[in-house]
Cytochrome c oxidase assembly protein COX16 homolog, mitochondrial
Amino acid sequence: MWNQVRKLQKNRTVKYGIPMLLLIVGGSFGLREFTQIRYDAQKIKKKLDPALEARVKNKKQSTILQEEYEKVKDLDLDGWKNIRGPRPWEDSKEQQQAQLNKGT
C-alpha cells in the first residue's frame, strides 16, 4: 500500500495537474462570489433617499420636457456662425484674432 502512495506522489499528473485543476475550478467559484459582492454593493449605492425618490416620482417626464422646450424656444438657432478652433500646433490667440478680424 505504501508503494502505491509513493508511486502516486511521483506521478506528474497527481503532483502538478490535480492542484492546477483545483486552483482553476476553485478560483472560478471564488471570483463568482467576489463579483457578486461588487454588484450587490452597486445596487445599494444606487438606491435613493425615500424622500428624494418620492419627489422624483411625482414629476412626470412630459412636464420636464415642457420646461426644457420653454428654455430652448427663445434661442436663435438660425443666426449662428461656424468658427473653426485652433489646431494643436497653432496659437489659439492668433486664431481668435483672425476670427474677430474676419467678422468685422
The chain has a mean pLDDT of 81. The chain is about 75% helix and 0% strand.
